[in-house]
Amino acid sequence: MIAGVQKITDCTASVEYSASNHSLFMQKKITMDTKQKLKVFAAAMLALTLSGCATRQAETEERDGYFASHAFKASAQNERVRFLVMHYTALDDKESLKTLTQQQVSAHYLIPKDPELRQDKPVVLQLVDENKRAWHAGVSSWNGRTNLNDSSIGIEIVNPGYTDNMLGHRTWYPFGEKQIAAIAALAKDIMHRYQIAPDNLIGHSDIAPLRKQDPGKLFPWARLAAMGIGAWPDSPTVSRYLASRSPSAPAEVGVVQALLKQYGYDQIPQNGVLDQATQKTISAFQMHFRPDDISGNADAETEAIARALVEKYRGITMPVLAKGKANAV
């Protein structure tokens, strides 16, 4: 140990000088200039050592009855948040805020009908801390994950949803431009911070298609995808899989069921039958990716879109068969 360098015990500043090194200095008649340089070096070494002590102290957190050391980190970990789920409230601003803050339902964020602007940026309402579990998804499933409240952030948007008239005609209500700007900014930020995959930006109807229809057929999925937010099929790939068929041509139900399950709708039946559960799930898929027709029928365009998404986001490329023939999955 160099003379003048401290022996650090429990991060105290006690210093013990080496008598033998001191004697060595005297015997070799080291100049005062050299001694001064050694003292400076010793002081620097002391500062570094004490700095290490301070770091180690900061890595140890005192808790109730014990200390927790943060000195080591496991490599096998990832973010708790894996999904971002979109909803509409089907209520006005006042009732939306009241429901989401005073009843047994919540979301991390609420986007008002007409968001306030500050410095030309929209103001959104954060109702639940992101590290807390909001109650927005309910019974849900997506691509092998269930109970998505545990692993998602929920965004509610003030929007009436839809109304049905006496003849059963359904009217859907669009989202405002200021709302869309807020949705885009908020979603982009959350997805970047948590590294959420594009295909994990989903609607409530995607994860609970048998009981939910929000955020509805007018939610701007395509516009968001054009901004780099969320998943969308590539048009040339859709055309390739459509293979000159009419978009409305019938497709094999079993093929569409298998494709939707591969993409993420993992609760869709696999029975080749257009039953109620299958039709509702196909309709949810169409609301997201083909909102012009959300009948829930298994048609060629729905099949082609599903194939394009599976290829793009699941890495599975399938052969294209001749016109009029259905492809097995």
Written overview of the protein:
- The N terminus is likely disordered.
- Helix 7 packs across helix 10 and helix 8 runs parallel beside helix 10.
- With 329 residues, the protein is α/β, with parallel strands linked by helices.
- The longest helix has 27 residues.
- The strands form 5 sheets. It has a 5-stranded mixed β-sheet. A two-stranded antiparallel sheet has the order 1-2. The protein has a two-stranded antiparallel sheet with strand order 5-6.
- It starts with 18 loop residues before the first helix and ends in a 15-residue tail after the last helix.
- It contains 10 helices and 13 strands.
- It folds into 3 domains: 77 residues, no CATH class; 144 residues, Peptidoglycan recognition protein-like (Lysozyme-like); 80 residues, Muramoyl-pentapeptide Carboxypeptidase, domain 1, CATH 1.10.101.
- The chain is 37% helix and 13% strand.
